[in-house]
Structures are given as C-alpha cells and as structure tokens.
C-alpha cells in the first residue's frame, strides 16, 4: 500500500475548535478556536513530505540552526512521526493525542544516537497545551536542542506587541527560552517557500532550549511544555 507523503490527524473539540497535526514533523498546521485560525502557514509551503512545513509549529530537534551533519534545525521537522495515541476525548471534554519519533536508519545517518521523542497535545476550549519529552535510552550522554517554532497568524506584524519580555536581556537572534522572528521584506524574498507579501501576517515566538545544550545522561528524560491561550 502506498504511504501518502503527508497525512493529518485532527483533534476536534466541537464548536469549530480544532487542531490539525501533519505527521510530517508532527507539525501542528492549524489551530482554530471558534473557527478563528491562530496559526500562519505560508501559501507557498510545499507539502512533499521532504521539506519542512513553512508555518504552523515545526519541532526543532536535535539542533537549532545549521549543522555539519544534518539539515538546518534538525531532522524532527522533516521526519514522519507515529501517532502514538489517536485523539481521545477526556472527561473534561478536552481532546488529547500523542505522537512519537524514535531514532531510525535515517536519523542515525545524521545523529548516531538512540532517542525517543514524545509529543502530547491537549486541545482545550481556548487553549492548546504541549508537552514534549526527550528520553535517552542509550549508554552514552546525549546533548541536544529542542524548540517549538510557533508561527502565529497576525493581522499586521507592524502593529503587534509581544509582552512578557520585560527584564529580559535582548540578544539579536538568540535567547535561552524565547526567540522572536519575522523575515521582513528582504529576507522574505529570499525564502523560496514564503510569499514576500506574507511577512506582515506572521510572527514567530519560539520557545525552547537552544543557547546551551540539553544534557541527558543515559536513562534520563528532559520534559518541556508550552501553553497557548486565546484571550
Ligand atoms: O528557514 P528555516 O530553516 O525554517 O528557519 C527559519 C528561521 O528560524 C529561526 O527563527 C532563526 O532564528 C532564523 O534565523 C531562521 O531564518
């Protein structure tokens, strides 16, 4: 049986509140709350099961940025993930699903370590909860980055305010926990899977562990979580 290049899993909470996950990268490609889309996906994004999806929430692992041995931002966003637990309604009415990525021949060519990544999503009435964990089942210590590269859909980035950064040191490009990115016009022109007229409609607020590596001794797990909420 032919396996489709990309396929999606939908968490449906009712009341036009849904979350759609593409198994290519376990990329959340849509989050609708009362039918209002919250995430940006470029019209130029290519769904060929090879390239990363340009938008939604790609998962950056095992490294942020370029690498000598593998693709930019790692292979998790271009690997096909398994659906570990299909969407299930919880007693609260919320909907939960789980995804998993294990090391395989392909990942071993770029990063020769065993690992298990587990991604758990819970869709609530106005919130989306993310839990992601990296487990090291091997005998060697692992060192990696992990980040959720969230592309928010906004009416006009030039009129956007991102709060909660007060007191943070501003470093152009990187910070240990949160990164804000928009290509703006010139860079947008250079990105093949991004329309140059689209930059006002998105802003990435990325949370993760990128400036220093996550160090995982054998048999240990690193867990991170993120909650998105519509006010
Ligand atoms: O084009 P990509 O590989 O998806 O990377 C998109 C962007 O990701 C991050 O936000 C980096 O800080 C940017 O430098 C990079 O351009």
UniProtKB/TrEMBL annotation:
Q: Which UniProt keywords apply?
A: Isomerase
Which GO MF terms are attached to this record?
A: aldose 1-epimerase activity; carbohydrate binding; glucose-6-phosphate 1-epimerase activity
Q: Does the keyword Isomerase apply?
A: yes
| A family per Pfam | Aldose_epim
Q: Would you name any one GO CC term?
A: cytoplasm
Q: In which pathway does it act?
A: Carbohydrate metabolism; galactose metabolism
Catalytic activity reads: alpha-D-galactose = beta-D-galactose; alpha-D-glucose 6-phosphate = beta-D-glucose 6-phosphate
**By its UniProt entry, which SUPFAM superfamilies does this protein fall under?**
Galactose mutarotase-like
Top class in the EC scheme? isomerase
Q: What is its EC number?
A: 5.1.3.15
Record-linked InterPro entries: Aldose_1/G6P_1-epimerase (IPR008183), G6P_1-epimerase (IPR025532), Gal_mutarotase_sf_dom (IPR011013), GH-type_carb-bd (IPR014718)
Which GO terms are recorded in the biological process aspect for this UniProt protein? Answer: galactose metabolic process
Signal sequence interval, chain numbering = none
* PANTHER family the record matches: APOSPORY-ASSOCIATED PROTEIN C-RELATED, GLUCOSE-6-PHOSPHATE 1-EPIMERASE
According to its UniProt entry, the function of this protein is described as: Mutarotase that catalyzes the interconversion of beta-D-galactose and alpha-D-galactose during galactose metabolism. Beta-D-galactose is metabolized in the liver into glucose 1-phosphate, the primary metabolic fuel, by the action of four enzymes that constitute the Leloir pathway: GALM, GALK1 (galactokinase), GALT (galactose-1-phosphate uridylyltransferase) and GALE (UDP-galactose-4'-epimerase). Involved in the maintenance of the equilibrium between the beta- and alpha-anomers of galactose, therefore ensuring a sufficient supply of the alpha-anomer for GALK1.
Tell me the protein family, please.
Answer: Belongs to the glucose-6-phosphate 1-epimerase family.
> What protein am I looking at?
Galactose mutarotase
Organism source for this protein?
Answer: Hyalella azteca (Amphipod)
């Amino acid at each position: 049986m032919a396996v489709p290049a990309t396929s999606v899993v939908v968490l449906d909470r009712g009341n036009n509140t849904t979350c759609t996950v593409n198994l290519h990268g376990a990329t959340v490609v849509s989050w609708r709350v009362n039918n209002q889309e919250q995430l940006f996906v470029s019209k130029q994004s290519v769904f060929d099961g090879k390239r990363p999806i340009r938008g939604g929430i790609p998962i950056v692992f095992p490294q942020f940025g370029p690498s000598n041995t593998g693709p930019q931002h790692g292979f998790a966003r271009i690997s096909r993930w398994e659906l570990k637990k299909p969407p299930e309604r919880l007693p609260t009415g919320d909907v939960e699903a789980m995804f998993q990525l294990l090391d395989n021949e392909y990942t071993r060519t770029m990063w020769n370590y065993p690992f298990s990544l587990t991604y758990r999503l819970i869709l609530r009435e106005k919130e989306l909860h993310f839990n992601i964990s990296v487990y090291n089942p091997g005998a060697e210590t692992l060192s990696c980055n992990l980040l959720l590269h969230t592309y928010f859909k906004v009416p006009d980035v030039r009129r956007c305010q991102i709060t909660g950064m007060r007191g943070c040191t501003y470093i152009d490009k990187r910070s240990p926990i949160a990164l804000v990115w928009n290509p703006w016009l010139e860079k947008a022109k250079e990105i093949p899977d991004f329309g140059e007229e689209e930059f006002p409609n998105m802003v990435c607020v990325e949370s993760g562990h990128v400036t220093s590596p996550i160090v995982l001794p054998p048999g240990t797990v690193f867990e991170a979580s993120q909650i998105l909420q519509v006010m």
